[in-house]
Amino acid sequence: MTTTLQIPTLRAAFGEHLQENVSLAAYTSARIGGTADALIVVNSAEQLAETVSQLWEMSTPYFLLGSGSNILISDAGFRCVVVLNKAKGVRFTEGETPSVWAESGVTLSKLANQAATRGFAGLEWAATVPGTVGGAVYGNAGAFGGDMAGNLLQSQLLTKHGREEWEVKAMRYAYRSSALKRDAVEAVILSAEMKLENGNPAQIHERMQQFVEKRKNTQPPGASMGSMFKNPEGDYAGRLIEAAGLRGKRVGNVEISTVHANFFVNYGETKASDVRALIELTQKTVFEKFDIQLELEIELVGKWHE
Q: Could you tell me the CATH number of the domain that includes residue 161?
């Protein structure tokens, strides 16, 4: 993104809501990332829609940031407006076919816990997912045999044509992918409605706790982006990386985890360029040894020098 922002114009449009020269490392799960020229925090789906509509009208480039998981922001950062999505409205519907409506900035793991406390099952798989509802809808997030494709009823999007309701079939979900992601649709996810099931709060919490314990035992603690690579069909990225002899490999202060080789852990003051170098080394080594091209599950965002 090389567009030069018209900061005075943005100041006039957004006033005190506009922050300038903001380090993005604190807003990512890996604690890595350069600065954004401008940042705007939105606290509701309505504010999100208004802000993005205004940026579209101004032909101003922007990037929507949620929980900052599953992304690697370049050291050069963004020459655009980062819209930080803190839209966290939630509404449960009870009855024989319960559901939950949530704004796109809601953290999925927190939503799963809220549902469990109310005696609603169906989101147990999400108990360990650090991303937001919007990110989960966009990328078909999943864990422990569940995913967004199995829960989503419909999502409200903002497009250049206005607000649109997309039912789950319109998303054309695939493994960690959707029509929005594959086709680079110019749209913003405002909210989503997900189906739930009635259940016993204690039993639901127990299932969730089992997933949490399993994650603790199989995935590393510390700052990471989540799973680095998608699992190739019929295999596991972590197994391939370990078999290639890369477990524990470091570049700078980023390390391929010794607990689970599909996680790269930031041990402090890590550059995005170091992570990128370790990604490329991993892909090259696995391809040379097994003739398999590992595909990134995370997204590289910001300005990169190819």
A: 3.30.465.10
Single out the catalytic residue among 103, 193, 255, 297.
Answer: 297
Active-site hit among 67, 176, 224, 255? 176
User: How far is Cα 18 from Cα 10, in angstroms, rounded to an integer?
Assistant: 7
Q: What is the DSSP string of 108-131?
A: HHHHHHHHHHTTEES-GGGGG--S
Q: Is 94 a catalytic site residue? A: no
Q: What share of the chain is helix, strand, coil (3-state, %, to 5)?
A: 35, 30, 35
Cα separation, 73 vs 302, whole angstroms? 6
227 catalytic? Reply is yes
pLDDT tens track for 230-261: 999 999 999 999 999 999 999 999 999 999 99
Q: How many CB atoms lie within 10 A of CB 145?
A: 9
Instruction: Confirm whether 297 is a catalytic residue.
Output: yes
Pick the last residue of a domain from 58, 85, 112: 85
pLDDT band of residue 4 (cuts 50, 70, 90) is low
- Structural domain that includes position 146: 90-217
Structure pTM? 0.87
Tokens representing 64 are 């929507």
Tell me the sheet residues that pair with 254. 251, 266
Non-local (6+) Cβ contacts of 236 within 8 A are: 262
Catalytic residue (choose from 104, 109, 191, 227): 227
Of 192, 217, 242, the residue that ends a domain is 217
Whose tokens are 């390390």? That residue is: 255
Residues whose CB falls within 8 Å of the CB of residue 139, separated by 6 or more in sequence, listed in order: 70, 131, 176, 177, 178, 181
